[in-house]
Amino acid sequence: MENSEKRDVCNEVLQRLREAGNELVNNPGFVEEIHAHFQRLPARYAADVNVERAEDVLMHKRLLEEATKSKNCSVHVRPVHVFPVPGETTITSQSPTQDDQVGTSGALQPSSIHFPPAFGSSADLEALALEMLKPSQMEDEDDSSGSNSVSKFSYMPLHEVTFATLDKSRLLSELSSLLGDVGLNIREAHVFSTVDGYSLDVFIVDGWPTEEVEDLQQALETALPGRWIK
C-alpha cells in the first residue's frame, strides 16, 4: 500500500469519526495526530484495520501514546464477536434468535453480541464462529411457558487483547506466553512495529470463562513484568 492509499484510509477513518459525532475531530491538531498515527505504523496496518470501527484506531493511538510516555506496556481488553464470512455458509434454523436465553446451559443471547475485531479475521477464526453457533449436545428443554422447546447454543466468549510496548526481540513469544499463563488460547494475532521502535500487538483469544473484562484486564496487568506495567 502506497502512502497515498494509507492517507485515503486515514481520511476515511476521520470521516467516520465526524459522522459519528466524535468531538475529538474538532480539536486543534487532531487531524494531524491521526495522520501521524498512520504514518507511524506500517502500510499493512492501514490495509488490515476495520475502518468501520474507527474508534479502534483511537484506542490504538492512545495505547501507543501511553507506552511512549511511560516506556511501559499498555494493555486494553474488550469482548468481541466473530461472524462467519457472508455467503460462504448460511446459518438459518440453527441461528440464535431473540428468544434464546443465557443460563447455566451456556446458550447464546443477543446481549452476548459485541463489535467485531479491529482487524480482518482469518478462515480459522471464522470456522470457530461457525462452531460457536452449533447447538450444544444437551437435550432441548421446555421454555418458561412449557409449550415450546428452545434450541440451546454453545457459547465461548472471545476477547481482543491489545498491547502497546517497546519493541524488542522475542516480544511476540513473551506476550504469547503471558496470555497462556492466564489461561488464554490465542486464536489470531496481528503484530505491527512502528517506525520509532514500538510495537502494537493485537490478539484474539478464548479461554476466559466470562465476557467481563475487568478481571481479565487485572490478571494481565498482574502477570506483566513490573517494568511493563502501565
Automatic annotation (TrEMBL):
Chain ranges of the ACT domain: 160-230
InterPro entries cross-referenced by the UniProt entry: ACT-like_dom_sf, ACT_dom, UTase/UR
Organism domain of life: Eukaryota
Key words of the record: Hydrolase
GO molecular function terms attached to this record: [protein-PII] uridylyltransferase activity; hydrolase activity
Listed name of the protein: ACT domain-containing protein
Source organism of this protein record: Ceratopteris richardii
